[in-house]
Amino acid sequence: MEELYSFIKNIISYVQKDHEFPIIYKGNFNHELAKYLANSTKELTIANDIEPSLQRKIYHASLELLQNIYKHGSRDDDINKEECNGIFAFLHNDNKYVIITGNKVNEQQMNDLTNQIDQLNTMDAQELKSLYKQQMREGELSEKGGAGLGFIDIIRKTGSKLQYSFIQSDDNLYYFINQLEVGV
Fold first, then answer.
1. E-strand spans in 126-161?
2. Domain spanning 2-105+161-183: CATH superfamily
3. Any residues with CB less than 8 A from the CB of 49 and at least 6 apart, and which?
4. pLDDT tens digits, 12-70
5. Are 143 and 96 contacting, i.e. CB atoms less than 8 angstroms apart?
6. Domain coordinates of the chain in residue numbers?
7. Which residues, other chains included, contact 131 with Cβ-Cβ below 8 Å and sequence gap of 6+?
8. Disulfide check for 38: which of 62, 74, 170, 184 has CB 3.0–4.6 Å away?
9. DSSP label at residue 90
């Protein structure tokens, strides 16, 4: 768990180094909060005269990554099934926008995420488009309502690779840290 605290501390010090308009949130996530944080990124990009096409990319990626936290993250308890603990950060510096998310996952989810993201990060735009269409035609909805399109769509629309890591937690879970850089 000390590694997780160190990670969060690094995000805070990273933000303090010449980053414009940061948003940082750590706590329980649900549908309403995800919409609020995604809309906050949109409002900041509008207020800072960011090009509309880049605004849409940032908003879309933020919303998808935020939804992943509360839809797919492991819960700390069985009492509150509607919320999941996580972290979200939105930063800007050096002509790039950085979205960082984090949430707990179990070992099977960690393995699945590793395989999925590694595969997607090796694909070119045409392969991603074909995979997206295939998932739309053949993909089955999971018990949590997903069809496996989120990461595919994020990479397709932003043109950026997903960066990720896992930090072992004290409770036999792993903290999944995801970072996406969207350039200007």
1. none
2. Histidine kinase-like ATPase, C-terminal domain (3.30.565.10)
3. none
4. 565 555 556 578 888 888 888 889 999 999 998 888 888 999 999 999 999 999 988 88
5. no
6. 2-105+161-183
7. 120, 123, 152
8. 62
9. E
